[in-house]
Amino acid sequence: MANLWVPILLAYFILVNLSLATTAYLLLLIYSYFAFLWRRENPSTSSVKDLPVLFLLAVLWHVPLLPYYRIQFQPVYVYAFSFVAAVTEEVFFRGFLLYRLGLPLQALVFMYSHLNVTDPVFLVNTALLAPHYFSFGFSAGLIAEKKGFMASSVLHVGYNLMGINLLLGFDIVKVAMLFAADLMIIAILLFFLHFNLIK
């Protein structure tokens, strides 16, 4: 069961790129549930005290780009899907794959899973965002290694819920600023983890 992750991830990638995201996430969630049960190690050590720090990190990711954002609130089902998608990805990437591949490789797989190959413009845009996806996967992996995937899920949910309201016009300057925000978050996270400020 645990060795099926490559075809499952490939099926997920194909389904997402065919605009069948609900089916893709359902497949990933079902597989992740059984793969996580199989792993049965490194339980979560996160607590309610971690929530403010994790939400602060999720908000900080967006701060450097606030002058460029246009706020647009979404229908309720978009928030619900964003929540489910974040938790599903965390169960798979940080609850299972992190312990199978290690921190940098799971972040690399996370990055590639976010490429959109259905349209040349989408492919270029998502390819330019690849360093951001890698940085996010790396940061979430750092948190999951220390606190478990439930803590990284809080970060991911907070990040998604902030991000879906903030529309960003796409250009290379904004991509560079986003990557600068990624580096800032990794530095803050390493500081918090080094000094055990996330208890």
Automatic annotation (TrEMBL):
Keywords: Membrane, Transmembrane, Transmembrane helix. It comes from the Archaea. Pfam families: Rce1-like. Residues 75-162 form the CAAX prenyl protease 2/Lysostaphin resistance protein A-like domain. GO terms for molecular function: endopeptidase activity. GO terms for biological process: CAAX-box protein maturation. The chain crosses the membrane at residues 9-31, 51-69, 76-101, 121-142, 149-170, 176-198. This is CAAX prenyl protease 2/Lysostaphin resistance protein A-like domain-containing protein. It comes from Infirmifilum uzonense. The lineage of its organism: Archaea, Thermoproteota, Thermoprotei, Thermofilales, Thermofilaceae.
